[in-house]
Here is the input.
Amino acid sequence: MSAEITVEIKNSLRGQGFLSLKDGCHFSVRIVIPAGQMTKEFSTKITEISEKYGRGYFTLTQRLDVEIPFVKYEDLDLVREELTKSGLIVGGTGKRVRSIHTCKGTVCRFGLYDTEKMTKDFTERFYKKYYDIVLPNKFRIAIAGCKNSCPKPQMSDLGIIGRKLGLVGIFIGGMNGSTQITGKEIAGLYTLEEAGDVVERAINFYKEHGEMGERFPKMVERLGFELVEKELIKQI
Here is the structure.
């Protein structure tokens, strides 16, 4: 079966949340867990799927999502069907808004706002709503409850950081990985509602002005930070 899995098929599957492993014939299935809140029902179902289709275990990602490794190519549709029926989201990959990275600001003594609620709201508003909208490249959002910046908002395409009780700062143009760029903070402090509006403008601006394959930080560099900043905060 592995000989039939072409590069084109693997690339297509990757965009759907199925990541090809280095053995060439198995996949990791990525499951989006909003705010990293794992219920008993979800953990039970993921364990069942891991035992039935994988090798009996699952792993956690940096963004608080879950991956089930060693799933066979021919079982991917069955796995997706079973997970979806249980209310779980297979995905978090591709040229689109990625799953939202957050911290435990809701319960942390340093948290200045409800980061878990914002993450769930953003998952509905941006991850799910924009899922079928193809962007020039991936778009990552990080949400930090305070200046400790545990999810590294400065290193995401767009990052939100608690500055005062109920008020946040917003970074744009950061990137982590093989190429690292520290984002810059746009002027002003914003309510949580205003921050959501800035995020939506950033996504749509990227869709309109980004070149295919270009990451958001590279677009900011090409167009200029001041121009992008002006477009994102006008009328707010």
In short: Strands lie at 18-20, 26-32, 59-60, 66-72, 89-90, 101-102, 141-144, 158-164, 167-172, 184-185. The first helix runs from residue 7 to 14. The mean pLDDT is 95. The radius of gyration is 18 Å.
